[in-house]
UniProtKB/TrEMBL annotation:
Positions bearing N6-(pyridoxal phosphate)lysine: 297
EC number(s) given by UniProt: 2.6.1.62
Cofactor(s) of this protein: pyridoxal 5'-phosphate
UniProt-recorded name of the protein: Adenosylmethionine-8-amino-7-oxononanoate aminotransferase
Catalysed reaction, written as an equation: (8S)-8-amino-7-oxononanoate + S-adenosyl-L-methionine = S-adenosyl-4-methylsulfanyl-2-oxobutanoate + (7R,8S)-7,8-diammoniononanoate
Keyword annotations from UniProtKB, A to Z: Aminotransferase, Biotin biosynthesis, Cytoplasm, Pyridoxal phosphate, S-adenosyl-L-methionine, Transferase
Species of the source: Streptomyces genisteinicus
PROSITE patterns: AA_TRANSFER_CLASS_3
GO MF annotation list: adenosylmethionine-8-amino-7-oxononanoate transaminase activity; pyridoxal phosphate binding
UniProt key word S-adenosyl-L-methionine: yes
Signal peptide interval: none
Family: Belongs to the class-III pyridoxal-phosphate-dependent aminotransferase family. BioA subfamily.
HAMAP family: BioA (MF_00834)
Subcellular location: Cytoplasm
Length: 447
């Protein structure tokens, strides 16, 4: 085997036993050489922090960083670990399912965890969402939702209805169709303009209800109705596109306009589902139901990747009447028993607790703790809703400086663009929540 002097010491060669433990330095060297991180260059320009373990709301680091060996997680691992880490109930669910089977193909077979999960999701989501397609990830759930809508209209002999309408400032994932309904200019996917399907975009929704904006939505849907398969939006909170909040009344406007003009309505609740906004689903703020709903992130409590796309009987029946009467989608790990068992346990764990009070307590703590940020130079706005706190700057955040400042406070955050934001686990205690807020204020001041 030729020598590569520029390679770090790494895994054992063929026929040699695997290394049991790497030092933090060895891991970082291997990471730098081989691992491509999300939204980053290859090779990376900054070293990530090495996490050795996690429990409760704390991440334990492999080596001291900025004087800290553990950090309070303010991000819930990209908004998924709502129960914190190493939770005994979720651990038990995973362990019990491992003893039965970790996976079996879903084509032609079924099993209790997937069936129980689907039934539970139908029970807790708005009526008449009654059919559940289990997906690999949130982005794939949006991909499936768009495919459902397109296939629905093709099955009814109306293939011209092939475009999606959304509003600017949104984010729906990184696979192909989801990228096409993300913000085409301010988002992460401007690189693909001219290649992605061209969708119809309304201006970003104002925070408060404005009748003139609602009239604009109605007019846009009416004008494009003959070519619109569906409207797709993140209800109440636009997540990674800018962490903006808007009036739930716009959801009622969309529902009425879609009904009037024979257009389907899709709610992407991947970030907002399971209580994050103070209601179990953001749609509940408006008292409306979509034709298709996407769920993910907190579905498994951050343990395993799984998402779901729910639809109404109208959508399912329409697809079934087509020349191709099946939804042409089937991931290898669809309905994975291990993920489904943990998802069932995660949903039950949430609903058995007073999650509404937990989120309300968090909202109060975030309002109080983030208030000092409004006095900082360079801060444009501070906003809080449910378990979401946002400090918006008037400039692009210096992510490295902001992250270091938060770590010095003992907090893990991941600022992006002009935002320093936080979505802590629901189980975060008052003292830890106050520390998280101090970390956000410090990050905003440094960034």
């Amino acid at each position: 085997m030729p020598e590569h002097s520029d390679r770090p010491a790494g895994p054992a060669g063929p026929g040699q036993p695997a290394r049991a433990v790497y030092s933090a330095g060895e891991l970082l060297a291997l990471d730098r050489a081989h691992v491509w991180h999300p939204y980053g260059p290859m090779p990376g320009r900054t070293d990530p922090l090495v996490v050795r373990s996690a429990s409760g709301v704390r991440l334990r680091l492999a080596e001291e960083t900025e004087g800290r060996t553990e950090l309070i997680d303010g991000m819930s691992s990209w908004w998924s670990a709502v129960h914190g880490y190493n939770h005994p109930v979720l651990n038990a669910a995973a362990t019990a399912q491992l003893g039965r089977m970790s996976h079996v193909m879903f084509g032609g077979l079924t099993h209790e965890p997937a069936v129980r999960l689907a039934a539970r999701l139908v029970e807790i989501t708005p009526e008449p969402l009654r059919h559940v397609f289990l997906c690999d990830s949130g982005s794939v759930s949006v991909e499936v939702a768009v495919k459902m809508c397109l296939q629905y209209w093709r099955s009814l002999g109306r293939p011209a209805k092939r475009r999606m309408l959304t509003w600017r400032g949104g984010y729906h994932g990184d696979t192909w169709q989801p990228m096409s309904v993300c913000d085409p200019e301010g988002g992460m996917h401007g690189l693909w303009q001219g290649v992605l399907p061209e969708q119809v975009f309304a201006p970003a929704p104002p925070a408060d209800f404005e009748e003139s904006y609602a009239d604009g939505l109605r007019e846009l849907i009416a004008r494009h109705a003959d070519e619109l398969a569906a409207v797709i939006v993140e209800p109440v909170v636009q997540g990674a596109g800018g962490m903006r909040f808007h009036s739930p009344a716009y959801l009622r406007v969309l529902r009425e306009a879609c009904d009037e003009h024979d257009v389907l309505l899709v709610f992407d609740e991947i970030a907002t589902g399971f209580g994050r906004t103070g209601e179990l689903f953001a749609a509940d703020h408006a008292g409306v139901a979509p034709d298709v709903m996407c769920l993910g992130k907190a579905l498994t409590g951050g343990y395993l990747t799984m998402a779901a796309t729910l639809c109404t009987p109208r959508v399912a029946d329409g697809i079934s009447r087509g020349e191709v009467p099946v939804l042409a989608h089937g991931p290898t790990f669809m309905g994975n028993p291990l993920a489904a068992a943990v998802a069932c346990a995660s949903v039950d764990l949430l609903l058995e607790r007073d999650w509404r009070q937990e989120v309300k307590r968090m909202e109060t703590g975030l309002r109080e703790g983030l208030a000092p940020a409004s006095e900082l130079p360079g801060v444009r706005e501070v906003r809080v809703l449910g378990g979401i706190g946002v400090v918006q700057l008037d400039h692009q955040a210096d992510m490295a400086a902001a992250t270091r400042a938060a770590v010095r406070e003992g907090v893990w955050l991941r600022p992006f663009r002009d935002l320093v934001y936080v979505m802590p686990p629901y189980v975060t205690g008052e003292d830890d929540l106050a520390a998280v807020c101090r970390g956000v204020v410090a990050a905003a001041a440094a960034g």
